Amino acid sequence: QQPVQSPQAVILREGEDAVINCSSSKALYSVHWYRQKHGEAPVFLMILLKGGEQMRHEKISASFNEKKQQSSLYLTASQLSYSGTYFCGTDSGGSNYKLTFGKGTLLTVNP
Amino acid sequence: GAVVSQHPSRVICKSGTSVKIECRSLDFQATTMFWYRQFPKQSLMLMATSNEGSKATYEQGVEKDKFLINHASLTLSTLTVTSAHPEDSSFYICSARDAGGGYEQYFGPGTRLTVT
Predict the structure, then answer these.
(1) Which chain A residues touch B43 with a CB distance below 8 Å?
(2) Which residues of A1-111 form beta strands (DSSP E)?
(3) For residue range B16-74, what is the model confidence (pLDDT) as tens digits?
(4) Strand B4-7's sheet: what is its strand order?
(5) Preceding omega of B8 cis (within 30 degrees of 0)
(6) A42 in B contact zone (CB under 8 Å)
(7) Cβ of B43 and A87 within 8 Å?
(8) pLDDT number for residue B1
């Protein structure tokens, strides 16, 4: 079942913060976050595993609430390069580690 | 590290012909590769999971006789769209898991298929 992402779109000025949420109705083993720019392939940002710690990559961090099957991506002091569509991919622990992706959140960072 | 390539990046073909798309992991071995399809401004829809040396596992609603997948080695998987029709036009993306690494998937640059 496809995870639900919110918001669908957000517009920021450079330097502002944003939070993108991802929730699932199924128990999750891991949540993966990707950023995709127009016409390009998704780029891996980070993965959160069940029982794992909150992850951080530069000014981007994420959390995973296993009980609520929710994950949030936090973008701090956004940069122009952060613009793109953010997808969460959820893994319910099958043997092939396949992911189900949400519909995406379009983030636009303006100068 | 963790680079995945796809070839071709763009292809235009006539209705009724077949097209082969290659996905290669360049600096790691991938026992599992995934094939996705993405329509404009939409999410990534998993088509099939490809395991080296075995038959691919297709998602519900994906015709396995139309989308032939072969994963002959630890670094190469191919997707062949047979008897292509205009409705098959889409962005096809592969991803790969590092057999010696973690759970993350690394995506190729994608192939834009246009069927005329």
Answers:
(1) 2, 87, 101-104
(2) 4-6, 9-13, 18-23, 30-36, 43-49, 55-57, 60-65, 70-75, 84-91, 100-101, 105-110
(3) 999 999 999 998 998 899 999 998 888 999 999 998 888 899 999 999 999 999 988 89
(4) B4-7, B19-25, B76-81, B67-73
(5) yes
(6) yes
(7) yes
(8) 66
Cα angle: A104, vertex A105, A110; to 5 degrees: 145
Note whether B33 contacts A: Cβ–Cβ < 8 A.
no
Tell me how far apart the alpha carbons of residues B91 and B93 are, in angstroms, rounded to a whole number: 6
- Vertex B72 angle, CA B85 and B19, to 5°: 15
B residues 67..86 contacting A (CB < 8 A): none
What does the buried/exposed string (b/e) look like for B64-78 if buried means 16 or more CB atoms within 10 Å of the residue's CB? eeebbbebeebbebb
**3-class DSSP state of A18:** strand
Closest Cα in chain A, distance from residue B27 (Å): 16
CA distance A54 to A66: 12
Both tokens assigned to B57: 């596992």
> A65 phi and psi, to 5 degrees?
-100, 100
